[in-house]
Amino acid sequence: MNVLTDRYGRAFPYLRLSVIEACNFRCSYCLPDGFRAVPGRPASLQVDEIARLLRAFSKVGMRKLRITGGEPSLRRDLTDIIAIAAATPGIEKIALTTNGCLLSRRVDAWRDAGLTHLNVSVDALERQRFAAITGHDRLDDLLRGIDRALALGLGAVKLNAVLLRGLNDDQWPLWRGYLRTHPVSVRFIELMRTGDNAEYFARHHLRADAFEAQLLEDGWRLLPREGDAGPAREYAHPDFVGRVGVIAPYSRDFCTGCNRLRVTAQGDLRLCLFGNVGIPLRPLLQSDDDHTTLVARLFGQLGIKAQGHGLHAGDTGLTANLSTIGG
């Protein structure tokens, strides 16, 4: 079987599929004023279109699917989408990134449908601080949902926290306490510039390398990178059952191990989170008869994938905010 590779020798077995742009949280770093639909924007991909998309990507070597948004649980057919992914030959891992708003009520059904991995956004472990960042006082329910996910025995449960100077950079002692007893990986993500957050970025950007230096000082040790690992550098400590991951998009080697492609909720292929090109796939998702043409289009686009993003030069590409493509 042919596998998607680019001119730099990178292979792409991992697809991040946004299934909806809408989000019901008002996170200060993404949608501080809440989600506002763009007039005239086409509807999100329908289930039959998603099924055809996944079959094509599995044909070119996709083994891991991450379902993102916006907030994917706002789709009433999310369980059906997970089941379709689970029934697609070749897909071995089905992950979901969610803000956790429906986690405690839906995670059993998602697991039963075929979900194998889960990422939940938790930007603070103190209730008032969480509400201030996200616009919602839901931390307690969210943590109950995480406990339920752990009890179900999913392949991995990871928590995502955006590093924010002056907003949550004092939360590390609380995270230390949590990681002593919870077998999760907490991913601390360096804040990224997007098209609409320049002022916020200037106020709250915290360099990931400063946080990593603190981890090393506290006795955490960097683990060897697994062959199919994502962008996080993962740390472990003998006194903790949980681990810490650090995602540092401004590090020099961040794009070297890129192994993922993205498709927006409207069916545009994005070769990079901060790329300047969206390749429309939706016209080829209307009929099973277009499968061969769709596969050929996927192979044909990898030749224009850049070696790295342009964040260091202030180029955020087409990404106005992360809700449009799921981060």
Report on this structure.
The chain has 327 residues and is an alpha/beta fold. Helices cover 28% and strands 17% of the residues. The two termini are 29 Å apart. Strands 7-8-9-6-5-4-3-2-1-10-11-12 form a 12-stranded mixed beta sheet, covered by helices on one side. The model is unreliable at 309-318 (pLDDT under 50). Helix 1 runs parallel beside helix 2 (78-86), helix 1 (47-59) packs across helix 9 and helix 3 (103-113) packs parallel to helix 5 (139-152). The protein has a single domain (14-324), classed as TIM Barrel (Alpha-Beta Barrel), CATH 3.20.20.70. The protein is built from 9 helices and 12 strands.
Structure at a glance:
Helix content is 28%, strand content 17%.
The profile of the biggest β sheet is: 12 strands, mixed
Instruction: Write down the overall geometry.
Output: globular
Number of DSSP helical runs: 9
Rg (C-alpha, Å)? 19 Å
Q: What's the CATH topology label? A: TIM Barrel
Break the fold down into its secondary structure elements and pairings:
Elements lengths: L13 E5 L28 H13 L4 E5 L9 H9 L6 E6 L4 H11 L3 E5 L5 H8 L4 H14 L3 E8 L8 H10 L3 E6 L7 H7 L3 H10 L3 E2 L10 E4 L6 E5 L12 E4 L4 E3 L7 E3 L10 H11 L26
Parallel strand pairs: 1-2, 1-10, 2-3, 3-4, 4-5, 5-6, 6-9
Antiparallel strand pairs: 7-8, 8-9, 10-11, 11-12
Helix pairs in contact: 1-2, 1-9, 3-5
